Amino acid sequence: MIVRALARRQFMREHRRTGARLSPYLDGELGPGDRRRVEEHLHRCPKCRRVLGTLRSTLEALLTLRDLPHASVAPAVIDHLRREGSL
Fold first, then answer.
1. DSSP string of 21-39?
2. Contact indicator for 47, 55 with CB cutoff of 8 Å
3. At a CB cut-off of 8 Å and minimum separation 6, what does 78 contact?
4. Domain coordinates of the chain in residue numbers?
5. pLDDT at residue 23 in the model
6. Which of 23, 35, 46, 79 has the fewest CB neighbours in a 10 Å radius?
7. SS3 of residue 10 by DSSP
8. pTM for the structure as a whole
């Protein structure tokens, strides 16, 4: 029972540590040791894998915004709404 409690405590410590390192992990900013620890935890923790997946999706969506023209989007949106009679 004590062994299980200690293992759970260790897991939760790694869980918090991993959560704080997911963004640097995605950005390739972790050293080999930290990267390995994050990957080991991800292998065991479905919650952290889901969070990492969400971060990846968000990052991919944000990176597509770079393809937008630099001009302001607001005038085009306002014109579109006026043509549809929403304004």
1. HHHHHHTT-S-HHHHHHHH
2. no
3. 87
4. 2-83
5. 93
6. 46
7. helix
8. 0.66
